[in-house]
Amino acid sequence: MSVRGVLVGCVPIIVFALVWECVARMQVVPGYLFPSFSTVIVTLYGLLMSGVLLDNLASSLFRVLAGLLLGSVAGIMMGTAMGCRAVIDQSFHPILSLLYPIPAIGWAPLLMIWIGIGESLPIMLIFLCSFFPVLYSTITGIKGVDPDVINAARTLGASDLLIPVTIILPLALPDIFTGLRLGAGMAWRVVIAVEMVAMISTESTGIGALLIRSESLLRVDVIIACLIVLSVMCLTFERVFQYIETRMTDKWR
């Protein structure tokens, strides 16, 4: 993105922050219910310096990365098998179609009984929420590969074992990365929800746990600071996946 593009993108954010600051300083709503932008930034700085924010962010980040990695690998492997082999697609499509509409957070009560409340719970739920977007994006990408390209590869001597790895998957990468970006965004939503609902003890860590504790103390400034961090993390994941996609797919364009 060009410097001009960055500056243009920052203008609405700056305007929003200024309007927020002005409205808050009018004291139409008590300050503890609607803190000013500057107050939130000071709170955010204090949370960073004290280590509270970093400790909780590290816990959430670990859960997101672990669940997203497991779900993405499983989704790509299963999607590749279903996209390349019609018999596998026909066998698993019905059951996956039944499971896909169930929200990941809907599995929480059942998993809380089966595996308990601990690190495995958010990781498992993130696995579920990231698996399906990656799975279906992989299938879509593979089925969208031009059959003439595959036939040409076979004509040139490529084996059926190497074609999925050397031809099909590279050409399906744009769709796969679309699924990865969707899965990453859903992963952050799920981890916050699980930490708020199921991991609310005083010993629990995570951005969601910090949010729910701040709510009980009426610390609106801390809540907004956590939401800002959450937005930044989602945007960071989006940009990282875009960068990796560009680097990996340039030679195939």
TrEMBL record:
Gene3D superfamilies: MetI-like. It comes from Candidatus Methanogaster sp. ANME-2c ERB4. This is ABC transmembrane type-1 domain-containing protein. One of its GO terms (biological process) is transmembrane transport. InterPro entries: MetI-like, MetI-like_sf. It is found in: Cell membrane. The chain crosses the membrane at residues 6-24, 31-54, 60-83, 95-117, 123-140, 161-180, 186-210, 222-244. One of its GO terms (cellular component) is plasma membrane. Keywords: Cell membrane, Membrane, Transmembrane, Transmembrane helix, Transport. Residues 57-241 form the ABC transmembrane type-1 domain. Belongs to the binding-protein-dependent transport system permease family. It is a multi-pass membrane protein. The lineage of its organism: Archaea, Methanobacteriati, Methanobacteriota, Stenosarchaea group, Methanomicrobia. The keyword Transmembrane applies. SUPFAM superfamilies: MetI-like.
